[in-house]
Amino acid sequence: MTEHPSMDDMRRERLTGPGFDAREYQAGRAEAILAIELAEAIRERRIELGLTQTQLAERAGLRQPEVSRLESGGGTPTIGMLERLAHALEVRFVARFEKVDAA
């Protein structure tokens, strides 16, 4: 019987193999982290307010599947969508650029 490689082995091979672009990988990783942080912030505030996803969607002029997708870290919200969500969540939406520490 042929033994299949583990997920760790496959990941290691992909990260060290030809065509791997570390900058692209890091950019994708950073984007995923931001999506997860946004998802957690939306979900936590919604729960604090005692709202269901459907109720939040109604308040924000969205559909429940859109809220669900955002809360799971999927999709890319527009600035308008973030502003509507902030209003519905009774918070202020703030976007800013910060200098990166030169390390």
UniProtKB/TrEMBL annotation:
Residues 42-96 form the HTH cro/C1-type domain. Keywords: DNA-binding. The keyword Kinase does not apply. This is Helix-turn-helix transcriptional regulator. Pfam families: HTH_3. One of its GO terms (molecular function) is DNA binding. One of its GO terms (cellular component) is cytosol. It comes from Nocardia coubleae. The keyword DNA-binding applies.
